[in-house]
Structure formats: structure tokens, C-alpha cells
Amino acid sequence: MSALLANLGLHLVGPRVMLGVLVAAAIALAVALWDLDRVRNKAHDAQNALDDAASTIADQQAEIKQINDLLDVKRAQVRQSHARLDAAAERLKALEESDADAKTWADRPVPDGIRHWLHNPDGRQ
């Protein structure tokens, strides 16, 4: 079929015109293939950049999780410190209420009970 069209085209328009059409078609095909290769390379570069960004995001998310875990530990330590401080304040208040010397200790030397409490705020022996 293509041979028939080629023969028909040669008789109608002549061999130089047909050769010109074929050369133009070949050049157009080469330009289209070059453009396709350029687009394919751009797509490949974009995919690489996207993969790098996804990897960076994953690394940052892991780092954020690690920091959040550390913050949770620090928050627990702060809560524990506050609880110990509250308990120590309660023990000091109870000592001041139960010991006459402790009630007026600010104007005199530190009583033994307060001194013991200062050295051992957890109440351990």
C-alpha cells in the first residue's frame, strides 16, 4: 500500500518534492524524538528531586519524633520534680504546724527538724 502511494506521489508531485517531504518528515521526527528525550530527562530529574525531598522529609519526621520523645521524658521529669517539691512543701508545713521551734525558725538558728529536712527533702532516713 505504501509503495502504491509512493509511486502515485512520485507521478503527481515529482521525486524532488517527495524527497523534500520525506526529509522534512525525518527532521520533524528527529526534533520530536529530541524533545521527547529532553522531556524524559526532565521527568527523571524531577523524580530524583522528589525522591530526595521525600527522604529528607522522612528524616525530619524521625528527628521530630525523637525530639518529642525526649520532650515527653523531660515533661515527666518536670512533673516528678513538681510533685517532690509539693510533697516537700507539705512536709515543711506539717513540721511548722507540729513543732513550736519550727514555727519561729526564721528569727533564730535553724531547728534540727528543718536542718534534717533541708539535707533530706524526700523524708528518707
UniProtKB/TrEMBL annotation:
Top-level lineage group = Bacteria
Region ranges (Disordered): 98-125
Q: Where are the transmembrane segments?
A: 12-34
- Taking the record's annotation, the residue ranges forming a coiled coil are 36-98
Listed A to Z, the keywords are: Coiled coil, Membrane, Transmembrane, Transmembrane helix
**By what name is this protein known?**
DUF2570 domain-containing protein
